[in-house]
Amino acid sequence: MELLARFVCPPSACGYLPDRLWQLEYEFVRAMTAGEYAERMANGWRRFGRSLFHPVCPHCQACRTLRVLVEQFRPNRSQRRARKLNEGVVRLKIGKPSASREKLELYDCYHDFQSEFKGWREHAPKEMTEYIQSFVDNPFPVQEWCFYLEKRLIGVGYVDNLPGAMSAIYFYYDPNERHRSLGTWNVLSMIEVAAMRGIPHVYLGYYVEGCASLEYKANFAPNQVREPNGDWRDFRI
C-alpha cells in the first residue's frame, strides 16, 4: 500500500445519528491491493475511491461492520417478493466503472429524492469529476453493476471483489422504480453471485441501530457484526 495522507477530522454532527457527534479517521492511498483492503475492511474500515475511513468516535461505538453469511442465507418474505418483481425483468450488466451524464443524472435524482423524503444531509456530487473520484478512480479493480429495465438505466451499484469476500460500496436507483425494491435486489444479486463463486461473506458496510437508512442491512440473515474489540459475533440468525 502506498499511503498519501492520514488524518482525523474534528468532531462534527453525525451523519447517521443526528443527536450525536462523530469523528472519522481518513487515509488516502495512491496504491493498494484488493487483499490489503480486505484486511482493512475486516478491521472496520470502508472506502470510496482512494479514500479510506472509519469512525473513531470517543463516546460512541454504534457503527458495526455487517457481513452476510452467504452459504446459510435464506431470503425473507419481502426479499422473495423483490426477487419475484425483478428476476427475468430487470437486466444486470457487470463491467468496469465509468462515468456518464446518464449515471450522474440518475445519482443526483436519487439523492434529491432521499433528501426530500428522508431528510438526508449527505452531499451528492454535482460534477463529473466528483463522481469519478468517488466511484471510478479506484486503487484496484472494481465492478460496476448496472441494472436496466428494457433499455433504461434504473440502478447502479459498485462492488469490491476481494479475497474471500464481496463488498457493497454504494448503490443508487431511479426513485420512480422504488416499488421494485432495487436496493434489496442489488444485495440479493450480490449474494447469489457470491454463492456461485464459493465466496463466504458479503459485506454491507455499517449497521447502525437507530439509523433507518442502515438498519435494513440486518434483514439479510444470517449475518454477523464486528465488535469494537475486533471479534465477529452472530447478530441476526
Question: Which key features would you list for this structure?
Answer:
237 residues, alpha+beta, Aminopeptidase, 2 domains, 8-stranded mixed beta sheet, 4-stranded antiparallel beta sheet, 6 helices, 34% strand
Overall description:
The protein is α+β, with helices and mostly antiparallel strands. It folds into two domains: about 1-55, no CATH class; about 65-235, 3-Layer(aba) Sandwich (Aminopeptidase), CATH 3.40.630. About 30% of the residues lie in helices and about 35% in strands. The chain has helices spanning about 35-40, 75-85, 100-120, 130-135, 180-195, 210-215, and strands spanning about 1-10, 10-15, 20, 25-30, 45-50, 50-55, 65-70, 90-95, 145-150, 150-160, 165-175, 200-205, 225, 230-235. The strands form three sheets. An eight-stranded mixed beta sheet has the order 8-9-10-11-12-7-13-14, with helices on both faces. It has a four-stranded antiparallel beta sheet with strand order 1-4-6-5. Strand 10 and strand 11 form a beta hairpin. The radius of gyration is 17 Å and the shape is globular. About 30% of the residues are buried.
Task: Please outline what is shown here.
By secondary structure, this protein is α+β, with helices and mostly antiparallel strands.
Secondary-structure topology with pairs:
Elements: E1 2-8, E2 12-13, E3 21-22, E4 24-31, H1 34-42, E5 46-48, E6 51-55, E7 64-69, H2 77-86, E8 90-95, H3 101-118, H4 128-136, E9 143-149, E10 152-162, E11 165-173, H5 182-197, E12 201-207, H6 212-215, E13 223-226, E14 232-234
Parallel strand pairs: 11-12
Antiparallel strand pairs: 1-4, 2-3, 4-6, 5-6, 7-12, 7-13, 8-9, 9-10, 10-11, 13-14
